[in-house]
Amino acid sequence: SIAELIHHDKDKAEMALLKVSAFLRNTMNEKALLPLQDEIKNVQDYIELENIRFSEKIHLKIDQDIPRWSVPKFSIQLIVENAIKHGFINNKNLLNIELCFDKEKRIIQVKNNGKVMQKKKFGVGLSNLKQRLELLCKGSLHVSNLETPTFDIYLGECCENTNS
User: Pick from 113, 110, 94: which is nearest to 50 by CA?
Assistant: First the structure.
């Protein structure tokens, strides 16, 4: 997508390269946990990159009151990536992705209006995320709705020191 942009819109190509470089810099951070606000920024950058490919058909809505939690790096981004990969009904529809927070229960909910999920079984990526949540946060990952694909990330007490 970026290579094609270079020929058609140099300013947009430059912006896309800057987003890619920021996104890749975040992958090199060795910390397993990061502030939720930083994870959300990664998700926003990722969606901006994907919107180059999908012609601005992906919309992200985020609850205004973002909690001050730590989360495993790329936890929300992975669920958003799966929504984009598996959720588009066809190239003509918009994909709306929503992030909601339940502060009392320490739940991050990620839902989209894409294809109905057929089963609650996780592939490799989501299984790895579930294990990271268990290890780093004594948390869990669940599908709470198949019709409107909805993932609930439960965060217990997150700690990078796994010996505790």
Answer: 94
